[in-house]
Amino acid sequence: xxxxxxxxxxxxxxxxxxxxxxxxxxxxxxxxxxxxxxxxxxxxxxxxxxxxxxxxxxxxxxxxxxxxxxxxxxxxxxxxxxxxxxxxxxxxxxxxxxxxxxxxxxxxxxxxxxxxxxxxxxxxxxxxxxxxxxxxxxxxxxxxxxxxxxxxxxxxxxxxxxxxxxxxxxxxxxxxxxxxxxxxxxxxxxxxxxxxxxxxxxxxxxxxxxxxxxxxxxxxxxxxxxxxxxxxxxxxxxxxxxxxxxxxxxxxxxxxxxxxxxxxxxxxxxxxxxxxxxxxxxxxxxxxxxxxxxxxxxxxxxxxxxxxx
Length: 309
Description:
By secondary structure, the protein is of the alpha/beta class. The protein is built from 14 helices and 6 strands.
């Protein structure tokens, strides 16, 4: 009864990003993995989902890769209201074994990658304010469910995410074998930076060649009304076939449209690149990547250090 009253007290506030007492309480109580309190979504939250979905649909038909479009159909997302993760998982899990797993906020790097290895996708359950549909620095449920999860219905893509999670374990094992603490931190920081850049330029902002030309498969593009079209049509965007040595040394910034993007030929190609990334990791080729963004936070480092204690 106390929990019911607690939820009822938050009902009017809803589940708006950065404004949800439910999420703040979960963080204060140290709860990373949570349940989706679906009854807390306000009409304004559902309206935001409707607006986002309605304006993205024609963009997806023009610029999204066919694997994503099949994924949208397979998930049977309701364009009118915020999805229930349980409903999403009924379709998703039967296809690739993946499932969306609600979290209260930021997931440290190793924990995130390990979730992927176990076919769990850490999923934000708040949604952006309806007055801020164009840009949000934090992920929200539209980015995660409408941007990421449709790709998780594709077996080759899902297997690539699992393979990426295995690479994180390799990185943690290598770090555990280094005795000198300062050298351990230096090399681990470089490896995490390389993995973050690879993930950014593929899973978040990747492009794919195909019979119908260049299409987007990265979730950062597929959840952005403005950047999806810009990424494929703007003459100021540089688009190059992916090369690991370039990607792991290329910094990125999150607060503007990306000026440089990389293309893959298929998800089998992407899987092979993750294999190569792990080989480079074992050979020490990721130990001295170029400085610059993204930064590697203390929580991310510690998550790797704690993985093989």
